[in-house]
Structure formats: C-alpha cells, structure tokens
C-alpha cells in the first residue's frame, strides 16, 4: 500500500517514536482464544519497549499518523471443559457440545504468539492503493508459530461423534485489508485476505477407534511451484516464492470480498451477507481411512468468482 501520510509520528521526537514498538509481556494469560483456525488475544496489557519522559508541551507537539508497529512475544495455552451451541429455545434444548478442548504445544505446554523480530512486526496502517482507494491494512503474525488444537469429544443431541485434532497448525503471515464499498453504497464494506496455512495433520477419531480418518501434510497456498512438482508425489511439492498466498477477495482486481447487513423490503427480514471470491490451491500429502492409505490430494487452480453466504 502507498502511504498517504508520513510514517508513524511527526514533529518533535520523531526519531525516538519511529523506533518504538509495543512489547507484550511474556506468559500473560489469554482472555479469549477463538477455536478452529485462529486464536485471538483480547485485553492484553501493553508496555513500551523503553520509557520516554516528555513534558506536556512536548506531548502536544506529537501527532500519530499512518500507522503503528506491534511486537509480541507471548507464551500461553488454553483449556475448556465444554463449549455448548444451540440454535433453538425448545424444551429440551438440542446442543452441539465440544468437550475437553485444549490448545497447546502438542505436549501440554505453552504455544507461542510471536512476531519474528523487532524489525519485522505486525503493522496497522491506513493508506491508498494504486487506484487511490483508502484502505485499512493489518499485517498479522499472531499464528505463524505452530499450535495443536484438540476436542476430546463432540456431542450432538446427546450422541457422541468422536474427537478431533488439528496438529501443528500455522497460518500467515496474513494481510487483511478493508475499506468502504467501491460503488459508494452503505451497509457494509469491501475486504480481502491473503494468507497461507499448514497443518501437520487433521485427525478424526470416532468413539474408541483411533485415528479413523487422518489427513496429513495439509497446505493452503496460491499454488505448488517448482520444476519437479508432481501432484502424485508429495516429495516433489514446493510452496516457496513471493506472493504464494491463498486469497479471499482481491480489491486491486475489482473483485473484493464483501460484508453487508441488509433487510428485505418485502419481508423485513435482516440478513448478514458475505461475498467470498477465493483463489488458490489445496494440497494434502496423504489420506488414511480405516487403516488404508488413499494417497495425496491436489486441488489446484481454485477460483470461485462468486461465493455468497447469507445468514439469517
């Protein structure tokens, strides 16, 4: 993105503030972790990398502009006895229950939420792209370190459906951008996401039968690259290269993802509508079901120009 204003802070003490990043204390408890594909921290106490004593007059001459850098170094883990979800108020209530949830390093210890270095941090910026659109952009490193997700038992309407494990899952670095609708309409916004993801394995265990279904070596990227790439032979797969990211929406190509809240003029029903064009590649190195190997999966050149989800 092109910056529309100068970086970080201007006027007095600009050199001092330019070097400032936010440092998050080690081993601070996580207040909220979102299960499935991300864990987001809320209400984390922050402290500056170093203290700067300034008078009221000096502070009055400092203005925040363009964006901020955030450095994180956190070790944490998450456990929950049960999450219960229901879509009805009937009696008795029908529940989907996720029991014995853990998010850790795979051995009961702490996983990391960490940016690479003080020079490579998360950034939050406001700027313009080449078409002159004003966008908010967030570069996110919160999930680049691996973590292990586990649900000991899924129960639906008092029926056990087994357990789920997602091993050594990583995502990012990710770039999130959003801005007003290009056509100027209200009710929502345009956005796009570029990211990549990898999981060592996804394991579904039905009741007492161990690892009934296992997908190992899961890659979500833009494409598999390399002259030796052979979809039938995972040992030749390569996922290197600048910009090799799975994409949801593309603002620069006039094909953004969209978020809208709309009401039907006839029925008066209000709905959340998501438009999610996607582009990328999904590779799985091996699938094992019932002890039998079914080999790899390669779904390349995924392009969904229109994918609409309506939630009422």
Please provide the count of β strands.
25
Radius of gyration, CA atoms, in whole angstroms? 23 Å
Poorly predicted runs of 5 or more residues = 1-50
Compressed to H and E, one letter per element, the order equals EEHEEHEEEEEEEEEEEEEEEEEEEEE
Mean pLDDT, nearest integer? 80
Global structural class: mainly beta
Q: Tell me, briefly, the overall form.
A: globular
Q: How much strand?
A: over 45%
> Could you tell me how far the N terminus lies from the C terminus, measured between alpha carbons in angstroms?
35 Å
- What is the count of helical runs? 2
Count of discrete structural domains:
1
Biggest sheet character = 21 strands, mixed
| Fraction of residues in H or I helices | under 10%
């Amino acid at each position: 993105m092109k910056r529309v204003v100068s970086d970080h802070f201007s006027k007095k003490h600009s050199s001092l503030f330019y070097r400032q990043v936010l440092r998050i204390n080690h081993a601070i408890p996580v207040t909220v972790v979102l299960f499935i594909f991300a864990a987001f921290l809320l209400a984390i106490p922050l402290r500056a990398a170093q203290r700067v004593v300034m008078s009221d007059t000096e502070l009055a001459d400092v203005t925040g502009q363009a964006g901020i850098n955030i450095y994180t170094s956190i070790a944490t883990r998450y456990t929950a006895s049960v999450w219960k979800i229901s879509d009805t108020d009937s009696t008795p209530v029908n529940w989907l229950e996720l029991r014995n949830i853990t998010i850790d390093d795979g051995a009961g210890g702490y996983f990391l939420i960490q940016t690479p270095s003080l020079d490579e941090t998360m950034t939050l910026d406001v700027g313009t792209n080449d078409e002159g659109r004003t966008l908010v952009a967030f570069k996110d490193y919160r999930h680049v370190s691996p973590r292990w997700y586990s649900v000991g038992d899924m129960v639906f309407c008092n029926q056990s459906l087994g357990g789920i494990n997602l091993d050594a899952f990583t995502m990012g670095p990710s770039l999130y951008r959003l801005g007003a609708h290009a056509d100027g309409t209200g009710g929502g916004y345009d956005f796009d996401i570029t990211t990549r993801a990898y999981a060592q394995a996804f394991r579904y265990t039905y009741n007492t039968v161990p690892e009934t279904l296992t997908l190992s070596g899961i890659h979500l990227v833009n494409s598999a690259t390399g002259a030796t790439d052979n979809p039938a032979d995972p040992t030749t797969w390569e996922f290197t290269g600048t910009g090799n990211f799975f994409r949801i929406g593309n603002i620069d190509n006039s094909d953004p993802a969209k978020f809208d809240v709309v009401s039907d003029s006839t029925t008066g029903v209000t709905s959340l509508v998501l438009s999610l064009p996607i582009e990328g590649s999904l590779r799985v190195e091996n699938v094992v079901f019932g002890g039998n190997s079914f080999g790899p999966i390669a779904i390349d050149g995924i392009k969904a120009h229109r994918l609409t989800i309506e939630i009422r």
